[in-house]
Amino acid sequence: MDAFVPEVAPPPLLECRDLTKRYGATVALDRFTVSLAAGRIVGLLGPNGSGKTTLLKMIAGVAHPTAGDIRVAGYEVGPESKALVSYLPERPYFSRSMRVREMIAFFADFYEDFDAALARDMLARLGVSEGAPCAALSKGTVEKVQLTLVMARHAALYLLDEPIGGVDPAAR
Q: How many Å apart are CA 99 and CA 106, to the nearest integer?
């Protein structure tokens, strides 16, 4: 006779409980709580200064909450959770002195889950040359490259902060 083994649900992919972030007297986020299962696409909408970027930075581990708890796939923010998160900040983050192919090599070296072939395919579809120096790229093309690098990871959670703000509407 087989023993009954109850199914255990996996932890939520993202769980934030009573998350608060203060910068001095300014409250950027106040007791924010959410639980999200894997396989969902969620957009954050709100006016400037409402805490959207602050929230993404805390989930990514770039900023720390004043109070509350964040877990990614059951892990507290740290090395284990960061390995599962692919984060695109709102501002350019790579050296303009590099070429696109060097950025691909950098990501391939830095992230175990990075798919260089996928990145090259996406860049080709977007008409971005791997030989292009980043300093010569337009703002919109820089954003395309950054978005491609972030999306070419096989991550569990993608955090995109205004991913196509500078990309022209026809390319979107």
A: 11
